[in-house]
Amino acid sequence: MSEFTGSRGWFGDALSQQQELRLAxxxxxxxxxAADVVAHEGAPLTDLGILRLxxxxxxxxxxxxxxxTILTVEPGDVFNWSSVVPPYRSSxxxxxxxxxxxxxxxxxxxxxxxxxxxTLAAVVYPRLLASVSRRLQATRTQLLDLFAAERGSxxx
Amino acid sequence: xxxxxxxADVRVGVARFTSCGGCQLTLVGLHDALLALFERVxxxxxxxxxxxxxxxxxxxxxxxxxxxxxDQARRIVELRRQARALVVIxxxxxxxxxxxLRNWADGDAWRAAVYPNPEFVAALxxxxxxxxxxxxxxxxxxxxxxxGQLKEVLTAVLVGRRPQLAETAVCAxxxxxxxxxxxVDRGLPCLGPVTQAGCGAICPAFGRACYGCFxxxxxxxxxxxxxxxxxxxxxxxxxxxxxxxxxANAPAFxxxxxxxxxxx
Amino acid sequence: MDVILGxxxxxxxxxxxxxxxALQAAxxxxxxxxISDGAxxxxxxxxxxxxxxxxxxxxxxxxxxxxxxxxxxYFGYVVGPTSFKRFTxxxxxxxxxxxxxxxxxxxxxxxxxxxxxxxxxxxGCELAAIGVQDRxxxxxxxxxxxxxxxxxxxxxxAVQCTVSASTCFCTSMGTGPEVTTGYDxxxxxxxxxxxxxxxxxxxxRLMDTxxxxxxxxxxxxxxxxxxxxxxxxxxxxxxxxxxxxRLLARxxxxxxxxxxxxxxxxxxxxxxxxTCFCTSxxxxxxLDGTDSIAERTWDSCFSPTFARVAGGDFRPRLQxxxxxxxxxxxxxxxxxxxxxxxxxxxxxxxxxxVGIDVREELARIAPVETVAPVVAxxxxxxxxxxxxxxxxxxxxxxxxxxxxxxxSRATVTRIKPETVDTYTLHLTDLDPRLLATQPGxxxxxxxxxxxxxxxxxSRIGPSGIELTVRAAGPATKAITMLAPGDxxxxxxxxxxxxPLAELDGRDVILVAGGLGLAPLRPLVEAVLARLVxxxxxxxxxxxxxxxxxxxxxxxxxxxxxxxxxxxETVDRAGSDWTGRVGIVTHLFDEAExxxxxxxxxxCGPERMMQAxxxxxxxxGVTPEHTWLTMERHMECGIGLCGHCQLGRVxxxxxxxxxxxxxxxxxxxxxxx
Lengths: 156, 264, 672
Description:
A: four-stranded antiparallel beta sheet; four-stranded antiparallel beta sheet; 29% helix; B: alpha/beta; five-stranded parallel beta sheet
């Protein structure tokens, strides 16, 4: 059972053995210590990541408020998904808040593989889209700020 | 504010803009309640009643009247800076008042027709509510305001609670009083269904259709009421005049109000 | 003559004054029809000279005129704008007086006034309306003392309808025109007098004092025929068969927005209605706020403030308010009180200034035939609405053992800040019933001069309870500013709590968002206290920021408890936070557990609970085992003021805890 396929793999049962091998050939393991910066907001991205262990924080810098964590990436989540979407730059700063391990897939090679092999693209893109969609829906909910105290002015 | 503030000295002021002065005199008309109020607050500015005037700052500033001159437009901004809570009182302050009918007219022509030396009259072309100029914390509607509502807003300030001011239509007050609906049983053109309550539905109780001096409710269905009245055979001219009263300049009424033409 | 119950007698018209004399001799003031302001209203009358003799009322949608009628008749009219509820359920009633002296608070009920009255001229629909209000206000979950006292002092002289208006539909609602029950005496007006029948022993005794003669059969026939003629004239304008289900199947109908185009939102329909019972409580206080009287006033579901809570409004649109009113009268009232809330008197039709006719709206929005006529050239039909089987009735809490509507006092002994605006008050010196509060129940906190505030109980201890309060408005702020030693006045415990009996060894999933942890804390403590080794507890908490987390020390202890799987997340955080950031459903949407045999308890903002319920369903938790606690505007806490209605239920009385299955379509429905 690999990182990519099978009931526990990130792509489920959808990858053929050949496709799995191709992805594996583009991948490498990486580990991060707490406080390591995994990506800088706006910087070019070289890898798509799948977190195996630990926790990554996605942060945006707000002048005057410092770095605000807007999402954490948990084991099984993807990160650096912007690496497959132009302009291939990080949309946030990613920091490991505890020791973390991840599988990194070379983004340029992955994009080439997806262009070369439509059947691979047909598996990878929906899976990525599902992750991004889950994240988008969560962001919408956060936008509602549901737990905010709802309050009028002092006495009107 | 809460309990501790009851012991504090609450500074109350009354300021007048373009108005007849009737609303602020409602304060005097509170009688016994006014005496009790004097024990708990300092009225630091009330030109119609007190001669010593100390001016701001104010914990509560009651503002009567509309903004109708360039000087008033400047003065209200200055007063707002000195007031912790600014409460506008009356149809003039909350909508622009009867004098806002000039918003439909050519102000210069009127001024020339009325005054021998119009160049000495500095007036804005429009009469506008206080809220068009500064933030307002609460408003008391009506021409004039209701003494019970004035007492309630002052009590609420002192106690630190939200003022209990009606937001329903006048109809609710007619029903509680037991006044049969004038629209239904006499076919009178009553604005009660689109007018905010608070007056106690006095006029309908005396057989007089509501003419909207408390201004529109928050979401008035003016179009539906107008259509109903038109269906009873009323002309556009009559309907336009109906809404062109003391609160004609309130946006919901302004859209359908049409004051009669001035006859020389 | 000897009057026998059920046997009619005859009173000549010239002797009608004897009825007045007899009622007055019994010490009663008479409330009956009289002309005022161009209408026949009900008010105090002293004799036959006050009756509207010779007048009739011409009525249609949005139109009422008095016109000359049969010159001799005293009761030749139908019904006017007043209903008798004005006298059993007056527009304004003082309820209680509250005083604060130093730290002490006293609250005392104001004794109800109950004048001995005789209602004269009560029609069949109006008798039915009194019956409806009896079920709501007197015989329901908790009796309203003021109504019960006033009602007990009423003597009813009914009058059969011998005329009808175009607005009448009592025949459809099963309430008239015949007067059949619920009266002391019933009259039928004949050409030259009255057929008089006793409906109660009190009525019979009063009849004994009247100069009656035995009714001849020709008089009885005349009476029967004149009422039967009214029935034929009215016909059967409203198809009530299956109406409750038909309406509930139409919550999304475009017709609601269409009627809202015409509706003025003026409240007239509800305030002329003889059964509408919604009220609000206002505070009449002195300038110090230390002495106040709580006054109950007629309110309306059309009032802009009716469904408003701090910072929001559950029914912001006119179409929401109209739908609430119509579905309550003709559908959900049946669930709540066992009958329609409409008696077919037609007042809402006549007295609507723009003439909206409920009969037409019902036929348009909830037609009997659910397939629309096929438009030429089209074969698409409107889907046939198949109403879901009526949901099981909700088990109400038991008044007296688990619910107490009475006032009691408690002393604040500690106040603990939880977040920047949220405080926990520890209360002692409690009424023992409050110590028996069930997890999920709430109390109404009543401060002199402030409106009552519902607060869920956040801890139930051996000697006290805790309330966790966010200062969201002036009234809640005033509670958070109480000092140790201060007393508070409470009513409670109220409502139906979490169903602890359903735990039954199941795995437990608890999901809380924001302040929603407060009503869940006593449940968490109860669950952990009875945890068995085979049982798993999964606790998922969401908060706005790390600083907004409630009960941090408790949560840490729960996280350390064996058998507890604890996760928490916040919506956003600073860089010093190493915990999770994201929405609460992400704590378990991809988890590995199977929820099929689990029971879930959820509390937070409604939108968050919807998302949680949907995720739990995907994880296998059944709607029957997914429990929530709902928020609505509350004033009375005992199902009498109407504010907290949510479709078929009153949140205060039937909840605030509900299963997703119990709420059905009402959960997440816009504008309900």
